[in-house]
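**Protein of interest**
===
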Amino acid sequence: MKILITGATGLVGKEIVKLCHQQNISVNYLTTQKNKIVIQENYKGFYWNPQKTEIDFECFTDVTAIINLAGASISKRWTTSYKEQIILSRINSIKTLNVGLSKINSSSIKSIVSASAIGVYPNSVSNVYHENERLIDDSFLGEVVQAWEQEINMLFRYNIPIAVVRIGLVLSDKGGALPEIIKPINNYMGAFFGSGKQWQSWIHISDLAKLFLFAVENQLDGIYNGVAPNPVTNKMLTTKIAKVLDKPILLPNIPKFVMKTVLGEMAYLLFASQNVSCRKIEEEEFNFRYPDIDTALADILA
């Protein structure tokens, strides 16, 4: 098996590459930076420029599956220009893959798995969301995911099974949100955001990498939530991290207007509530190694 990965040098991409190599799966990857191209027996880089819809067609050689993770980080201040970059980086990546697939014989490709996000689900402290939910969050994130998934749908013309993984809060000590959550707690500045009742559907990064490969190997088709079975509230998450770190939570809850002053519109990420179910992927017999927050934090923060 050989997998073509976009976004292979990002947080999730690196974990998937590591898992691929542990299972003797070769990886081709696409990068926008020519100085990041390396050529090894089981790891080969190829240049692409999604802004110009340019791609090296050699990247598809002997590939049997594609994993798409490309997209600008949402964890930077949402200026007008950066919001455009967040959307276009996702759409243009899919468009460029589409162009590439249209120019080759794609019969050897048996699976496409693309990242998406649970930010598509409406903000709610009472609802539990499944993949068949039709309502879309009335926010920038809802707009991003809707446009992203519409573009992914353009790949159905190749008659290849396409799994869309809506990713939740990824827990890792190597990047993402968790190190940023830990910093204030470690410095005795930990606090809950707003009421602290907002749901945060999370997943351990190693389970997420395993889920992507599971979707490839089983040629899954359709939308799947990439979250662990037991979501937690913001208050629960903060409290449990503080307990593992043996730090008290001393400060009062932080109001939304304070964080909006600091972060601008991006503060929405801290207060949005999505209680998301992973029952569909479990029904495919996927097993989580870290199904609850205690085992996940114990592993990451050990």
Q: What stands out?
A: The mean pLDDT is 96.
